[in-house]
Amino acid sequence: MSQFEALFRPLQINQLTIRNRVVSTAHAEVYATDGGMTTDRYVKYYEEKAKGGCGLCICGGSSVVSIDSPQSWWSSVNLSTDRIIPHFQNLADAVHKHGGKIMIQITHMGRRSRWDGENWPNLLSPSGIREPVHRATCKTIEEEEIWRVIGDFAQAARRAKEGGLDGVELSAVHQHLIDQFWSPRVNRRTDEWGGTFENRMRFGMEVLKAVRQEVGRDFAVGLRICGDEFHPDGLNHDDMKQIAKYYNDTGLLDFFGVVGSGCDTHNTLANVIPNMSFPPEPFLHLAAGIKEVVDVPVIHAQNIKDPNQAERILQEGYVDFVGMTRAHIADPHLIAKIKMNQVDQIRQCVGANYCIDRQYQGLDVLCIQNAATSREHLGLPHIIEKTEGPVRKVLVIGGGPGGMEAARVAAERGHNVTLVEKAGELGGQITLAARAPQRDQIAGITRWYALELDRLGVDLRFNTAADASVVRDFQPDICILATGGIPFMEQNPEWGHDDGLVVSSWDILSGQVEPGKNVLVYDTICEFSGMSAADYLASKGAQVELVTDDIKPGVGIGGTTFPTYYRSLYEHEVIMSSDLILEKVYAEGDKKIAVLENEYTGSREERVVDQVVIENGTRPNEELYYALKSESINKGQIDVEALYACQAQPVLKEADSGMILWRLGDCVSQRNTHAAIYDALRLCKDL
Amino acid sequence: MLPEWLLPALVITALGLFAIGALRRILLWRAGRPEPVSLIAGLMAMPRRYLVDLHHVVARDKVMSNTHVATAGGFVLSMLLIIPVHVFGLDSRWLTIPLLAATVIMFTGAVFVYRRRRNPPARLSKGPWMRLPKSLLTFSVSFFLLTLLASDLLPENFGHWVLTGVLLIGVTLGLAELLFGMGWGGPMKHAFAGALHLAFHRRPERFGGGRSTGLKPVDLDGMLGVAKPSDFKWNQLLGFDACVQCGRCEAVCPAFAAGQPLNPKKLIQDMVVGLAGGSDAHYAGSPYPGRDVGQAQGNPHQPIVDGLVSAETLWSCTTCRACVEECPMMIEHVDAIVDMRRHLTLERGETPNKGAEVLDNLIATDNPGGYEPNSRMNWAADLALPLMADKQEAEVLFWVSDGCFDMRSQRILRAFVKILKAANVDFAVLGNEECDSGDVARRLGDDATFQTLARHNIATLSKYRFTRIVTTDPHAFHVLKNEYGDFGGHYDVMHHSTFINELVEQGRINLDRFKGGTVTYHDPCYLGRYNGEYESPRALLAALGIQVSEMERSGYRSRCCGGGGGAPITDIPGEHRIADMRVDDARKVEAETIAVACQQCTAMLEGVVEPRPEIRDLAELVADGLVVDATPASTATAGPSLAEEVH
Predict the structure, then answer these.
(1) Ranges for the 4Fe-4S ferredoxin-type domain (chain B) (predicted)?
(2) pLDDT mean over B459-470
(3) Are A9 and B643 an interchain contact pair (Cβ–Cβ within 8 Å)?
């Protein structure tokens, strides 16, 4: 077995020995409750990473130090009050118990926030320039406020230290207040806080000095910076090297975190948390450039997901620590599995960015594929123990995400599991999704399940369409239907689906229907599927117009992913049209005429194309469910109280005399991959 | 009637020829290098060594043991009585009746020898050995009848000279085999050489229930290893000559079973060829797998390798000592092999495959993998282990061993630390001050590197005070316990299985019942055969509520995992892998878990393709079963809390 020598070489940060070179870098969790406190869910989330072997966790991305840097709308950690200290003690104990270390990122976000809530503050910024991503208008900070915020930083650091955390990371990245002062793009001041290099550096320097003064020399203090803002009027890589060296030379810092790219526009934001369309470690060179000029360890995260990749980066000395943050969200036991020689069992992040895209909507961070992450406090397990109860015969119909997770969990519990899939492979809609350009890596979800189901000895029966008689003959104790859905093409009979006038996005992505030359894609859903279909068609050379009745194409896709679709669609000259309802499609010769009606004016326009592709979501495949429902002892019902409480279904305790029937995923109603996996996990974990 | 002098003459001639042959044989042995022995004490001790120690080994096969007692005892007694009765013509019933009885006993034994030879197992050599039962029968029958005829027990003139003549032919044949053959290299040589081998054995500590398994210290300024037969100590040559070719060694040798070119019996016989000169053309046993018989030629002063044996034969050995353990003549095969390896490594620089690299690594980095010497504690970066350098004094010095560099072994080490902490043991480690124990270097023949490492470690250990050393590595355990003494390092060394068992017995840790399926236990060679520890591991498993499903080959007969003696490093190809065969042993008892007590065994057995039983070290099983007192009052005093880990 490979020894991952570089990965497991401990390194000192100030007085701390970090047991390996893997860091869960700071990200906003959106779990802090009770006014920004790190309560049970938060603690358990980090404890799991420590238990799994992570060397260092830096928690609380963008945790605020001041009362006028809002935290409530995205449940960030609030270090502006001593009330946080006992909560930190719980957090520190939980991580230290497992040999891990934990620091917190502290910041004042300046203009990069929302003012319309909580204390309704005037947002602070060096020069009052509006921030576009949050549509945040702001005031110009005054000298008195500057000194107050510097003091707030010091007090926040004190609270972290008194709470037993191992260090603080000052955020000067993502255009927070410190790097707002740095960047001439937004710092237009002419006083001693702006203009010259030293003046622009002053605020951050005063923060650093104040923090160091407060916590003393032995407490770890680091600085997270970007490697290049990627704006012509912003800080470039050479500027960042100069800044890094300037702060490094004070001798007050113990480490640097480096993120490639600034993020105060939608487009640059997408670089910061590179989704699956990016190559591995796209900005490593920027971090390596910073490492050239500093004397303390450099941490770098961004698309480092694979242990071999991490080992290579460390082995070659580009940086000192690799951030594997999303990798830990997907599998907090990543390190343990490396050590157990179970690298194949690591649930690898696929870069779907479900986590971060939720965060940017102010929703709690969740993993598209691992429903146990951040639900440890509810008792959802990352390691599933074998049942001590009866071993059951479990039949799962459907090999999409819900079916695969149900089969996996049931098999981990020790049951005899058979999975029947109509297609010749696992994956369900993931297989379709992976056919789009830049989206192939989503198939990683399926690949992991395929390996796990094989390891667990699940009996997989492909190319088998299950009907009621198949289920009856099988005589399962439990039958789980995860039969998914089919494209909902009949909603408007005028689309002429029955007459073959339109095709579905599935028809296109699956390759069953050849792309036309001049294509109209009508997308009512505005998530991945329609964008993917358009991108796929364009990549095959089609001229595409992507039409939606919603406010903009892809509006349902989160902030780190719609930009990468847009990059591709604009590059392929795809026309994006909003607010148009597809009323009717008719044929004229070998052409199709699409009749579009403006939602707001009612005016109609027509498009002459040779193909109309519709993405209108799915309808559940529920025939089998209704055929079996009456025969099952639970009449197909799931006890939702038990389900939502993550407790065993009461029917499992009843004397077994017949089949239990459940259905989950899109064969109930269309939701998403995470929803199907979550239901499968919480339903099956107590089997 | 035949002349009366004929019989005495025959006996005297036979005795004389035996004496000449014996003298010649002794001279052959004396071609070896000197080794001081105590002549008188050795000879005095010999009968007891034969009757007790040797028969302790032989008695593992009850039928064969009784057969040998009858045959050999009958023969020795017969010979003692033949001389007065037939040479000096003393005619007393007090002599003739015991002589008759002795020949009857010998005859009875010979019948069993005969029966065994009718359908002999593969391990037995054929050739002249097939003749032996007939010779034994002839000798006993002839002397019985002759004695009877010559006695006054029968009516006058009962005998007929023709009968007497036939019997004399029988006597001649019998004497030829049993006396002439004894001196001149026939099968009966074993009785003569064997007796002296017992008297002048190189490891007299083995007798009387003792144990002697550490390699003998090497004078690095002297001759480095054995190049030619005469480079062996004289009593090693004597030991080779004691071989009875019973093939018990062959039957238990893991390398032989794996089809690697090693057969311990053939090796010893080739050494016999070497000491006497000639070829192996007359060898009538199993060959080295994959090699033809008849190619080996040698004499006392001709290099052994590539004359008598190939280097591959020597490098196939795992040093598991199964052959030594089984040998009824108490021959020391492993010593001989390592002696010859030492020559190849130190004089010729011919350690094969990864061997040279491993030795280079040991020289440069103090560990066989070539890892940074200052990274020995990386595995425990989050465990805050107390260092000897800080503490100076501890009850237990935990010898970590090179498992610290291996991720799999680290799990064993971490499990053991968990146990130490749970039991509140006052312990410390050497950290980066520790070096490889030298085990591998020594088995690969590099005594220079071994001594460097040993002296370094001894110097380090001498800086600190501790009651005992405990290690999870049976190889380090063996070397520290049995081989450092020659260089001034005398310690109370304990294997973790023994130590943990003590903790359990003292009630310092409490264990839950093991929740798993069938468990078998694999005895590591360096713990079991080398150090006699068979019981503690089993007691520990019993404490976990495990009833061990013993493999057919367990305890002193445990089959090696294939990982000892640097064998995985020199990596001589065979037809099978030893580890595969060992896992098959476990499969035969339907084990779901193989409990092991050695990280090398763990590595070897886990290298077997799945599906196979799970491999768990005792420390891991115990750590999983630890019942940690959860009362809040104790947490304040319990010191560092136990990390729950998934790894």
Answers:
(1) 234-264
(2) 98
(3) no
**Residue A344 with chain B: CB contacts under 8 Å:** none
Query: How close B560 comes to chain A (CA, Å)?
Result: 22
> Residue B543 pLDDT more than 50?
yes
CB-count burial class (<10 Å; 0-12, 13-18, 19+) for B259:
middle
CA distance A102 to chain B (A): 13
| CA closest to B410 among chain A residues | A339
Confidence of residue B185 (pLDDT cuts 50, 70, 90): confident
Q: Is A19 near chain B, with CB under 8 Å?
A: yes
Nearest neighbour of B407 by CB, restricted to A17, A19, A341: A341
For residue A383, being part of any structural domain is answered with: no
A238 Cβ partners below 8 Å, 6+ apart?
none
Contacts of B406 in chain A (CB under 8 A): 3
**pLDDT over 80 (residue A647):** yes
pLDDT at residue B636 in the model = 37
- What gap in Å lies between CA A77 and CA A106, rounded to an integer? 9
Q: pLDDT per residue over A524-544, tens digit each?
A: 999 999 999 999 999 999 999
Distances (CA, A) of B24 to B28, B232, B252, B592: 6, 18, 33, 58
Same structural domain for residues A35 and A82?
Answer: yes
Backbone angles phi, psi at B407, to 5 degrees: -60, -35
Residue A103 β-bridge partners: A58, A167
Q: What is the pLDDT of residues B555-610, one digit of tens each?
A: 999 999 999 999 999 999 999 999 999 999 999 999 999 999 999 999 999 999 99
Residue B634 pLDDT exceeds 50: no
Task: State which residue of chain A sits closest to B385, comparing Cα positions.
Answer: A99
A18 touches chain B (CB under 8 A): yes
Instruction: Retrieve residue A302's tokens.
Output: 């961004």
Do B383 and A8 make contact, defined as CB atoms within 8 angstroms? no
A157 and A275 housed in the same domain: yes
Domain CATH number, residue A593: 3.50.50.60
**Does B419 have pLDDT greater than 50?**
yes
User: A471: domain CATH number?
Assistant: 3.40.50.720
Instruction: Look up the domain containing A154 and give its range.
Output: 11-378
Nearest CA in chain B to A17: B381
In this structure, the number of other CB atoms found within 10 A of the CB of residue A549 comes to 18
Contact A425/B at CB under 8 A: no
User: Residue B632 above 50 pLDDT?
Assistant: no
**pLDDT value of residue B101:** 93
Which of A616, A634, A652 is the endpoint of a domain?
A616
Q: A541 burial class (0-12, 13-18, 19+ CB within 10 angstroms)?
A: exposed
Predicted model pTM: 0.91
Cα B351 to Cα B341: distance, rounded to the nearest angstrom: 8
> Considering A354, A378, A402, which residue would you say is the last residue of a domain?
A378
Q: How far is B432 from chain A (nearest CA, A)?
A: 14
Pair (A364, A453) in one structural domain: no
pLDDT of B643 higher than 60: no
Residue A102 has pLDDT above 70, yes or no: yes
Q: What is the ipTM of this complex?
A: 0.87
Per the CB < 8 A criterion, the answer to whether B259 and B290 are in contact is: yes
Which residues from chain B sit within 8 angstroms of residue A339, using beta carbons?
407, 410-411, 647
Do residues A255 and A322 share a domain?
yes
Q: Cβ separation of B646 and A99 shorter than 8 Å?
A: no
Using CA coordinates, name the residue in chain A closest to B381: A19
**CB contact (8 A) between residue A9 and residue B375:** yes
Alpha helices per DSSP H over B506-534 = none
> For residue B635, what pLDDT band results from cuts at 50, 70 and 90?
very low
The reported pLDDT for the residue numbered B633 is: 39
Question: What is the number of domains present in chain A?
Answer: 3
- Rounded mean pLDDT, A9-13: 96
Mark yes or no for CB contact A98/B643 under 8 Å.
yes
Q: Do A97 and B643 touch (CB under 8 A)?
A: yes
- Please identify among residues 302-341 of chain A the ones whose CB lies closer than 8 Å to any CB of chain B: 333, 335-336, 338-341
- Asked if A281 and A351 count as a contact pair (C-beta separation under 8 A), the reply is no
